[in-house]
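Researcher: I'd like a candidate sequence for this fold, 249 residues long. If you have to choose between options at a position, lean toward the conservative one.
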């Protein structure tokens, strides 16, 4: 049972920072000789998904019941993400010779470099502007999110970079990044269950821990984003990407 507590803590703590909770979950599950590591890591994202639903319940209800540019943006980004993610997922799971660790590590380093560069641009105020919620932006950010099915590449880090680089301010980028996780996590879990994922009752322990820890860590990040210069956020997250890269080596 202890191993599932560890997995829940890993997902809850790392989901919102750019060090790839999925990558660390796969590593942890592999070290503990647990089966279906990739599918299990995707399944445990349901814990932090529930945290998003609770934390943003009013915002999600508003988006679901009233037409809005933000809702349309998330929907279009999700469609692009799924078109990118599913072929990648099948390649990772079924194609021999696909070097998952190398691909994830390279993309993780690129995310770190991009976040650090974005921090300098934000410091100069050359990126900030009015968020457009355009189709072009949704396709761009959706494509980046789809790549995050590769273990080692952080979904939160790469979507946050995409939003910041397109002119979305720090609070907006965090919120949209969190909300974008909801439909793709649901879609991924529908797919893995159709693909034969075997649920075990002890997984509920990991889900519960991921929910509680994920809710607390998300609240902390949102409060911190309101109080600090987001350039420091980008630099800190960029350094975390490089630290995670070293951990995967």
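Model: Candidate sequence:
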């Amino acid at each position: 049972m202890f191993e599932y507590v560890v997995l829940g803590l890993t997902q809850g703590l790392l989901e919102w920072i750019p060090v790839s909770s999925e990558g660390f979950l796969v590593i942890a599950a592999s070290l503990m000789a647990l089966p279906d590591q990739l599918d299990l890591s995707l399944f445990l994202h349901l814990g932090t998904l529930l945290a998003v639903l609770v934390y943003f319940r009013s915002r999600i209800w508003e988006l679901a019941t009233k037409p809005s540019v933000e809702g349309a943006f998330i929907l279009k980004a999700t469609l692009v993400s799924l078109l990118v993610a599913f072929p990648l997922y099948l390649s990772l799971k079924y194609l021999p010779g696909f070097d998952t660790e190398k691909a994830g590590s390279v993309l993780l380093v690129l995310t770190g470099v991009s976040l650090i560069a974005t921090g300098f641009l934000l410091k100069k105020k050359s990126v900030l502007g009015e968020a457009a919620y355009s189709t072009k932006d949704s396709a761009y950010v959706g494509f980046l999110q789809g790549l995050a099915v590769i273990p080692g590449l952080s979904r939160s880090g790469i979507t946050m970079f995409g939003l910041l680089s397109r002119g979305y301010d720090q609070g907006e980028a965090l919120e949209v990044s969190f909300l974008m996780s909801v439909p793709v996590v649901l879609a991924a879990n529908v797919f893995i269950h159709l693909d034969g994922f075997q649920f075990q009752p002890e997984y509920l322990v990991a889900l519960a821990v991921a929910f509680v820890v994920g809710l607390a860590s998300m609240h902390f990040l949102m409060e911190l984003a309101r109080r600090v210069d987001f350039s420091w956020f980008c630099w800190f997250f960029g350094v975390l990407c490089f630290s995670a890269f070293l951990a995967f080596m």
